[in-house]
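Customer escalation, tier 2.

The customer says the design service returned an amino acid string that "doesn't look like it belongs to this structure." They asked us to rerun it and document both sides in this ticket. The original structure tokens are below, unchanged.
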């Protein structure tokens, strides 16, 4: 048995989101500042620049993390590599090398509590089932997920969509039923969610941070001709086509 005091029950800490095995807490002010840093800390508080942490309840689900994300654990907590044989290791190593994510993501099991490193980024909790069981992520967003979810390497539909769209050749795809935890530079309040039903979304720039695995991604001219594209001033645009959802971060 264990007890945790002066953590989530501290009046300086607020729970801002909770889903599945994950709980997101936010420090309302930074109390550990030197006089020379007081002005910076004050304006950070005024502008919602605050530390946030993810607390994982392993009694609800095993959790897979981005390597290096764990800060501390208490109770019955066991860490494994999550690798199931040589073939699985090679697949994860390849996926890590092409998506920019850690090759081996440790899996934590048990019934205790797992706390992740604090971050000034915004934490997004996503139920993958609400994305028809498949979501594709922009590079660097993955922080943690319930271990029942599967990780896949999603290749671009063609080379032009990677080069012209200023994207990599591959993205990390997450499939199954469970909760996904992302680190985003943009808060949830500013994210635009677009749902497509057999339709097309065209975006000028790398604004999409996540999209349904059912959507195809290509890069196309904004107009029907080179002259039309030049006249519009947009040139090439990222195109998401089909049925599914897209999350856009228009600011940040």
């Amino acid at each position: 048995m264990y007890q945790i005091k002066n953590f989530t029950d501290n009046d300086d800490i607020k729970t801002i989101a909770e889903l599945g095995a994950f709980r997101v807490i936010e420090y309302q002010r930074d109390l550990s500042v030197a006089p020379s840093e007081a002005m910076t800390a004050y304006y950070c508080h005024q502008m919602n620049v605050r530390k946030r942490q993810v607390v994982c309840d392993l009694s609800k689900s095993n959790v897979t993390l981005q390597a290096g994300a764990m800060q501390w654990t208490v109770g019955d907590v066991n860490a494994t590599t999550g690798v199931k044989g040589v073939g699985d290791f090679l697949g994860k190593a390849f996926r890590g090398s092409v998506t920019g994510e850690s090759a081996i993501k440790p899996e934590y099991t048990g019934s205790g509590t797992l706390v992740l490193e604090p971050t000034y980024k915004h934490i997004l909790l996503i139920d993958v089932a609400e994305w028809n069981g498949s979501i594709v992520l922009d590079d660097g967003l993955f922080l943690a997920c319930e271990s029942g979810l599967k990780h896949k390497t999603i290749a671009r539909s063609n080379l032009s969509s990677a080069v012209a769209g200023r994207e990599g050749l591959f993205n990390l795809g997450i499939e199954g039923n469970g909760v996904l935890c992302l680190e985003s530079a943009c808060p949830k309040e500013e994210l635009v969610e677009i749902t497509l039903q057999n339709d097309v979304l065209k975006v000028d720039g790398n604004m999409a941070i996540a999209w349904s695995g059912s959507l195809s991604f290509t890069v196309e001219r904004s107009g029907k001709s080179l002259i039309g594209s030049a006249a519009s001033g947009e040139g090439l645009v990222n195109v998401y086509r089909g049925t599914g959802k897209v999350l856009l971060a228009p600011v940040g």
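Tier 2 assessment: The sequence is consistent with the input. The longest helix spans residues 86-99. The chain has a mean pLDDT of 85. Sent an explanation to the customer and offered a walkthrough call.
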